[in-house]
Specification:
Rossmann fold, binds the ligand C=CC1=C(C)c2cc3[nH]c(cc4nc(cc5[nH]c(cc1n2)c(C)c5CCC(=O)O)C(CCC(=O)O)=C4C)c(C)c3C=C, 48% helix, porphyrin biosynthesis, Ferrochelatase, four-stranded parallel sheet, metal ion binding, alpha/beta, 16% strand, binds fe (ii) ion, cytoplasm
Amino acid sequence: MPGSEADTRMPSRVGVLLINLGTPDAPDAASVRRYLAEFLSDPRVVEIPQIIWQPILRGAVLTTRPKKSAHAYQQVWMPGGSPLAVYTRETAEALQQAMGPDLIVDWAMRYGNPSIASRLQAMMAQGCERILLAPLYPQYSGATTATALDKAFAALADMRLQPAIRTLPPYYADPAYIAALKTSIDGHLAPLDFRPDALLASFHGMPERTRKLGDPYYHQSVETVRLLDAAMDLPVHMSFQSRFGRAKWLEPETEATLTRLVKEGVRNIAVVTPGFSADCLETLEEIGLRAKEVFLAEGGEKFAFLPCLNASPEAITLYQRLVGRELSGWVDQRV
Ligand SMILES: C=CC1=C(C)c2cc3[nH]c(cc4nc(cc5[nH]c(cc1n2)c(C)c5CCC(=O)O)C(CCC(=O)O)=C4C)c(C)c3C=C
Ligand SMILES: [Fe+2]
Ligand SMILES: [Fe+2]
């Protein structure tokens, strides 16, 4: 009988898919190798022609780096898994609680697991006909935001029946983001046994060439720092970390900046990483352990690494605001 198929359909639902970078499944060399092979083969991440890059990647990089990186991951691994995955999952769960049962909140990773395709399928199986894709990067970069969305659209390309899609814009200058950063920083400074002379905002770097080719990440990061500096009553310095490869990367570099600050008389410092929504190898190990060692070895006295927004109440307030705005007309006018 015509119409009977429609009668058995699930009610139309709205979903939000939080997307983060991705991380190995385990802190061993084989898992890290698998993860790095996928990540560093992305032409949005390494902008060297594949015919030149793949032999270098398969030769030098994937034979030496996995063992070294696995050791670094082991130092920050959590009972629930890789920090990036643990905090991204906690964020999705807390946002689901905050938004209530009318909305389905899920999470996925651009590289590794859970994959974007598998979570899109799962959301559609639950009846999501409208999905907001939310890459959790405050500042837009081709290497992060765009590649996450590319991967989602590639999954949609295989679907006969696609959901309606919206995407979350970058939020680097959103007053709600700056307010969340300030609340988080103030909250983590309060219990310290010292008052820092300055804050250092350390961002993940990228090749200088990528900026010259028009990627807005650098300028958006500078704008975040300008707004954060205006909001804080401590001077806020800026630097770029995690250099990879031989090309020139964005400057000033984080460890060089810490060294310079000590020379200029800064003794006590707090370091924040506002370009990362969740703590990960690059924040916990590179800043919390290695950069700290550098600062103290150079003559610094007190070093505090302040956590990312993660799944904190201020993070959830922020995401409720951002997501709520993008869902306008979907959640309040849905029939
Ligand atoms: C937040 C923004 C990020 C940008 C921009 C970015 C660009 C970028 N990264 C690499 C190389 C590596 N990044 C690695 C880890 C890593 N990168 C980000 C974020 C950005 N990357 C995060 C959140 C993480 C942590 C992942 C985790 O599992 O915790 C690594 C791997 C770590 C290692 O092996 O030491 C590499 C390599 C490039 C080339 C790049 C270019 C624009
Ligand atoms: Fe990176
Ligand atoms: Fe690193």
